[in-house]
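Researcher: Please generate the 3D structure of the following complex. Treat every line as part of one assembly.
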Amino acid sequence: MNIVLLSGGSGKRLWPLSNDVRSKQFIKFFKTEDGQYESMLQRMYRGIRQVSEDACITVATSKTQLSEIKNQLGDNVGLSVEPARRDTFPAIALSVAYLHDIHHVGEEESVVICPVDPYVEEDYFKALLSLSERAKGSDANLCLLGMEPTYPSAKYGYIIPESSDEISNVVEFKEKPDEKTAEEYIKKGALWNGGVFAFRLGYMLKKAHELISFKDYDDLYAKYDEVTKISFDYAVAEKEDRIEVMRFHGIWKDLGTWNTLSESVPDPVMGKGIMDDVCKNVHIFNEMNVPILAMGLTDVVITASPEGILVSDKHHSSYIKPYVDDIVGQVMFAEKSWGSFRVLNVESESMTILVTLNPGHSMNYHAHDRRDEVWVVVEGTGETLVDGMRQEVNPGDVITMQAGCRHTVFAKTTLKIVEVQLGREISVDDKRKFEIE
Amino acid sequence: MNIVLLSGGSGKRLWPLSNDVRSKQFIKFFKTEDGQYESMLQRMYRGIRQVSEDACITVATSKTQLSEIKNQLGDNVGLSVEPARRDTFPAIALSVAYLHDIHHVGEEESVVICPVDPYVEEDYFKALLSLSERAKGSDANLCLLGMEPTYPSAKYGYIIPESSDEISNVVEFKEKPDEKTAEEYIKKGALWNGGVFAFRLGYMLKKAHELISFKDYDDLYAKYDEVTKISFDYAVAEKEDRIEVMRFHGIWKDLGTWNTLSESVPDPVMGKGIMDDVCKNVHIFNEMNVPILAMGLTDVVITASPEGILVSDKHHSSYIKPYVDDIVGQVMFAEKSWGSFRVLNVESESMTILVTLNPGHSMNYHAHDRRDEVWVVVEGTGETLVDGMRQEVNPGDVITMQAGCRHTVFAKTTLKIVEVQLGREISVDDKRKFEIE
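Model: Done. Output below.
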């Protein structure tokens, strides 16, 4: 199976656990059987591997999410990285060109496209596999997965099928309706459009060449900035006559708000949290190192991270976005391809962060023009490279770096460093990268 | 006026803003006219100074609160420090001996005793002044302030007066009753016993010498550990025939729970906090640097500090104590006589803290046996003393100290230092103090 996972989103609705660099699919909400937590992305990846061990999995994403994806999935996935945002059709075209030119997927092979962020269970992955198989041999050019609606939602588009067969031709697509209209659609046997579909690679590549002038993947990547923005629905789905839909009866949920998310997380407490016996339908998601105590509450979600603290009635949690827009803040934590960082303290002319490097990884070799830095190694062993000088470092070692000084560190074991940044204009933009000498 | 403020309490009921080293009277809840926040202690002190500019104010307290009191009141108060806890009578005896021997208060002068933590307004301080005046010339040996009850509380002891006159003899004292009995007391004109009373110094000194064998303040202080525990009520009040009570009609409240406290704090948000329009009767007390967003809540208090986060229905907040007993934690922040500290990060073999020294102050000259330390100065100017070597320090300067190394720092301006502690057994007990060489 060739599968492209679409990973996007800005993540404001799940603030403070999501932020500008961490979309909801990266938050580790789900407890695995061995007691570890995993993210929606990791859950989706694991589910696909379980039904198709040798699946060719590609994540289509933007540059901003690259570090986080590498951090969570390692080097086990292909990455089709949009150099800019050009809407869904160019993104799919780019990933198809990527599969064709980089992974040498044949034109008769099928490709499944699916968003990374719905909450699903094992039957969903089996359905993806069936969809992939179907697309190879079907007369249709597009094979959709249609979700059996559980209520007349105004949040989704609808697919009107010709019959109630498991697989049927598609009569038409309907935009997000109001609830009353949704009820009528459902009476007619309509299905939710979850943006999951499959096709033969050759078909989509042809569509791509029809609509975008490019030679191959490298060429498309290079000129991606200039490609016209156009949605996949408008460019392909609405114009294609030969579309069929496969019914999916299992669990498929959009966990886009704290309310819907908490319904799908069985464990009411993630992280350090205590509730009294009076609490009813309360969820605590705590990414901070201090305990949360909840007393006498009903239908409340409490979430805390280094970005902030949310306490919300569950139903009201869906109205969060305008408030979060107003909380313009520094990014206080982030996972990077090499590990993670967390802001510990901010003063007017200094910032203290905890840097954690994963074993075998290092950050870029870089320098800052307008700040000095001090590293204090607090855990692990590694090797620093400072202005060309290599040095083994251990807990207690201190490295001071003036502005302009080139530096990086390579982690032999998990390496934790307290970094103190000093200067009048501390900014993430003040960074020049260098090749290692 | 000579006044002794009793400052005690462990502060679990207002967790996480109070902790083992910070009792509720030290939390800065109250906004002053100039927009600053002040604590109950500071509010009480300011109120007394307003009615009696040259009042001799003494705080009777224990060693653990000494740093915080000096931090909040500076050197403007006398301190009668109990070397150990020996119940209320020895504590009052010690403070009376302190006033007599150290401040040379005459035996005919009156002394007012009052707890530091009720919520009161201006008329209360005037009443204290009247009580002080009354005690000087009265026939009675004890003059109490009796609070007009506003409801049949089971939390207070009651004073039964002879008449409903503004000043009247006391018939008897009643222990905390149940609510029904309290109602009967109130019908008879009973008053709440708020533990506020005045006497002539000579009277109490005589009582002290009758019950405790000591020469003077220094002698009592030296043998304080061996003094028998006995309450003031048992030792004096219940045996004294000549007691009178002065009625107090104004506001006098015990702000012992988040519920009662939030009723007396007009501003619903302290620190960084945002509420939606749906929130009703919600209070946010936030001592962290990140914002709290509250949505769709009713009758809820949210408090956050580096110790933890509490989200509680206001009425349930009075049941907090057993939960806090279970949260056995490191003290994550504290005000000291020289400034304050805040824990930024804890790892298995390191701890990072932010130390803030007030201008002109320095910590003790000290050494640790089982940890190394690194200081990174992030703000201000000062002078370090490390193993006898003095050195001026400025932002960006790094000082490394091996275990055993003696060190301190003197702040010329407000001085902020990121301190990284490194070792397998990091403990507050690992500290030896030295005289400066």
